[in-house]
Amino acid sequence: MTMTFEVAATKPTVSFHVFEKIDIRVGTIELVEDVKGSDKLVKLTVDFGDRKGTALVGMKKERSNPKEIEGKQTLFIVNFEPRRMMGQVSEAMLLDIGYPDGITPVLAIPEKPVPNGARAG
């Protein structure tokens, strides 16, 4: 399937040393919950293999049923500083494809199941 859109310019070059600092891991989304009072956010409970964590994700307007991603593996940045939003704490950042380009986002998923906590890079 080919879609036409304007490809954004490539971001400035970063060193491998900088890239190595970003901890990208596979996690399985176990639960998607509504964040009361927010018209965008849902709370994901994610299994990262050695622990469970939470990620607050602004997908209410992108999906008619955010719970459809429960049970799916996808990529997360797990070493961001925790961030408080709407009275909740987000411990990880979901990596999706399309949002910055104005495309309805899709999950960045492994081609086949891998252990939770497996590193990308």
SSE order and pairing:
Elements: H1 16-20, E1 24-34, E2 41-47, E3 52-58, E4 73-77, E5 83-85, E6 88-90, E7 93-94, E8 96-97, E9 106-107, E10 119-120
Antiparallel strand pairs: 1-2, 1-4, 1-10, 2-3, 4-7, 5-6, 8-9
| General shape | globular
Q: And the CATH topology?
A: OB fold (Dihydrolipoamide Acetyltransferase, E2P)
Question: How much strand?
Answer: 35-45%
CATH superfamily membership: Nucleic acid-binding proteins
Structural class: mainly beta
Main β sheet profile: 6 strands, antiparallel
* Total domains: 1
Helical residues, percent: under 10%
CATH class: Mainly Beta
Radius of gyration, CA atoms, in whole angstroms? 15 Å
Q: Point out poorly predicted stretches.
A: none
Task: Please state the second-level CATH architecture.
Answer: Beta Barrel
Mean pLDDT value: 94
Topology as a string of helices (H) and strands (E): HEEEEEEEEEE
Description:
The chain is mostly beta strands. The protein has one domain (16-111): Nucleic acid-binding proteins (OB fold (Dihydrolipoamide Acetyltransferase, E2P)). It has one helix at 16-20; strands at 24-34, 41-47, 52-58, 73-77, 83-85, 88-90, 93-94, 96-97, 106-107, 119-120. The strands form three sheets. Strands 1, 2, 3, 4, 7 and 10 form a six-stranded antiparallel β-sheet that branches. Strand 1 and strand 2 form a beta hairpin. The two termini are 26 Å apart. 19% of the residues are buried. The model has no long low-confidence stretch (mean pLDDT 94).
